[in-house]
Amino acid sequence: MAELRFSALKEVFRREPLVTTPPSKDISKYFNSNVFDLHKMEHYLSKEAFRVVKKAISEGKSLTRQEADQVAIGLKAWALEKGATHFTHWFHPLTDGTAEKHDGFIEMGDNGHMVENFSGAVLVQSEPDASSFPSGGIRNTFEARGYTAWDVSSPVFIVGSTLCIPTIFVSYTGEALDYKAPLLKALSELDKAAVEICQYFDRDVTKVFGTLGIEQEYFLVDEALYYARPDLMLADRTLMGHQSSKDQQLSDHYFGSIPERVMCFIQDFETEAYKLGIPVKTRHNEVAPNQFECAPIHEEVNLAVDHNQLLMDLMRRIARKHKFRVLFHEKPFAGINGSGKHNNWSMATNTGVNLLSPGKNPKSNLQFLTFLVNVIKAVNDSNDVLRASVMNESNSYRLGGHEAPPAIISVFLGTYLTEMLNSIAHKVTDRKMTPAQKTELKLGIGKIPEILLDNTDRNRTSPFAFTGNRFEFRAVGSSANCGAAMIVLNAAVARQLVKFRNEVEQIIKKGRNKDEAIFQVLKKYIIESQRVLFEGDNYSHEWHTEAARRKLCNIPGVPESLKCYLTAESKDILIGPGIFSEKELESRVEVEFEKFTKKVQIEARVLGDLAINHIVPTAIRYMTVLLENVKGLRDVFSAGDFEKLAGARKEMIISISDHITSIKKLVNEMIEERKKANIIDDSFRKAVAYEKKVKPYLDEIRSHIDKLELIVDNEMWPLPKYRELLFTR
Ligand code: ADP
Ligand code: MG
Q: Does the Cβ of 180 fall within 6 Å of ligand 1?
């Protein structure tokens, strides 16, 4: 069995970097070359079709059949020129991946000849069989069809020979079965609400976009070693493996020079990303050995989410060319850092203003403070549902560990802004302010430095940190479709802005002027949001006690915290404005419970199989060697000498035997617990049973295996060890 491990290692040692050449040294020459962007639309579409699509994009509207027919003609011409033979609607089902079903352009013509055809009808809508996608009970099997509809705000692109059309995915009865449909609604709510607020400060603002820059962390493992680890192949993480004697203690990997073979892989996927219009900009080694990060320049939220999904797909494919496997799992290796997907988020206007960046004068700074405080208030009020939006099985291994932001969602502002907000809370009065008081306040606000970027301290432990001109939501997991987190964040802020406007208008009605009304409500929000503001070390034990005192959400269980999607507050932000229907929201939570159960189930099965079929037989074989050795000693030496010599061997035999007995017993118990959990009908209770009764066995069984790894002859050990997985490249 150990042969697989050693032949894999030999393969790794023979690897050469795979050098590829980009189409040009100037990225701008081929950036977007596989995207049907505005520039190409102008070239390939009729004047009328181009006008219609541009309008649909800017207004977030869909096209009529006739309009779509016109667009399809130009799109087809471009796609055929690029060598595309197929097209697909590309969507984000609730699986964390993307889905595509390819159809050829070919059709049988009237006189028996093949013709390439592509109509407006298939461009805007398609009806894939939805029956095998998670739906949480929305879709009955007799209503198996779902349909996909073109999202014009995300451009069409070509991968290989397939034209990909970004779409939403809904059930035949109209309920969303994906992340994109509700995300677009949440973003539209944010747009409407934020524009209304901007109107207080600048009449030219007619559109507000959420902006998102996603830092993607990942691990690389050589393909040969990956194939020798069934747990990585089936569960995306190692379910066993003793810690390597050296891993990240010396912080010598972080920001180190990127290994050559890895660099070739990075350059290759960056080239492909540029062709697809994904503006990847940053790359570096991360904290753990063989861990890396890449980050594109921020874009409008919907596009950034699409691009992140596409990028992950691209990285997986290109990695295979370079004989690597990318691990997007949040915690592929125990004992060292896991991976996150930091969501840098802000809002921008059609006038080019970043609403979370201080401006040049008191007026623009008041606008900045207004948005800042409203975001804080939204995070304060929607604390539990925000947390639910990032909670899942794989991220639960990372959140709460002493490496990543904890599961308690708090906001970090830095000293400057903390003091600024405190002074507003102290200076503003509910009575009419004197001109002198107003001037003093405005002077203070006017002094906010235009560039806060260099003034904000960095608190790496905060799950939701202000970083100068944006918030960084760090709790999102590396494997997630961040659509889930973005739906909740944008919806929460949208709802908050609506409430803010109502409160301001009430005060204005009572005869106060606009600025005064704004100040009064901001003051109230600052006071009400104190509990969510935290500047200290989020990893510390004291914070957990303090957070509990502040009544911040900290439910360690995954199913339990997912239930927060269904609180009154959550329903207010998600169902209130129609982002979800009650049925959609409930079914989404149902999907999450099921996903959780299935993932733990898979891990438990894989670990059970490996323990019994790989580890126990190996341990027995080594034990037999020791037994033979002891027998030999007894044959050769006198009884007295034998006792002296055989002691250590006997201890090893007993210890191996004890571990084998424990593993066997624990695996049996785990199977029994699974059987009990499997007959539970209610999906929440089933998920809880898996979490409370099955999952603890994973660690227990593992600990025996990891101890055996240290005792058993290295030559016999079947699975690549941590030191091999983490240090070979
Ligand atoms: P860090 O120092 O936090 O590791 P990175 O350079 O890796 O930062 O990534 C920062 C990300 O934040 C980039 O994707 C960047 O484009 C993004 N970003 C910058 N400004 C904004 C903004 N206004 N809105 C959203 N994202 C932004
Ligand atoms: Mg970074």
A: no
Instruction: Evaluate: CB of 344 within 6 angstroms of ligand 1.
Output: yes
341 lines ligand 1 (CB under 6 A): no
Cα separation, 604 vs 699, whole angstroms? 10
Is the distance from the beta carbon of residue 152 to the nearest atom of ligand 1 less than 6 Å?
no
Q: Which amino acid is at 267?
A: Q
Length of the chain as a residue count: 729
Pocket residue to mutate for ligand 1, from 298, 303, 342, most atoms within 8 A of Cβ: 298
What is the spatial distance between Cα 233 and Cα 409, in angstroms, rounded to a whole number?
33
Determine the average pLDDT of the residues in 296-305: 98
In whole angstroms, give the CA distance from residue 606 to residue 127: 36
Tell me how far the alpha carbon of residue 295 lies from the centroid of ligand 2, in angstroms.
7
Q: Give percent above pLDDT 70 in the chain.
A: 97
CA angle (696 as vertex; 695, 697 as ends), nearest 5: 90
Q: Over the stretch 533-590, which tens digit does the pLDDT of each residue have? A: 999 988 888 888 999 999 888 888 999 999 999 999 999 999 999 999 999 999 999 9
Res. 704: pLDDT tops 70: yes
How confident is the model at residue 403, as a pLDDT?
A: 64
Q: Which ligand is nearest to the CA of 282?
A: 1
For residues 152 and 52, what is the distance between their CA atoms, to the nearest angstrom? 11
Q: pTM of the entire structure?
A: 0.96
Q: Decide if 79 contacts 163 (C-beta within 8 A).
A: yes
**Binding site membership of 718 for ligand 1 (Cβ less than 6 Å):** no
For each of the domains in the chain, give its residue range(s) and CATH number, in order of start: 31-178 (3.10.20.70), 187-580 (3.30.590.10), 595-727 (1.20.120.1560)
In 143-238, the DSSP E strands lie at 146-150, 157-159, 162-171, 208-222
Q: How far is CA 363 from the centre of its chain?
A: 36
Task: Identify the weakest region by mean pLDDT among 218-222, 326-330, 358-362, 658-662.
Answer: 358-362
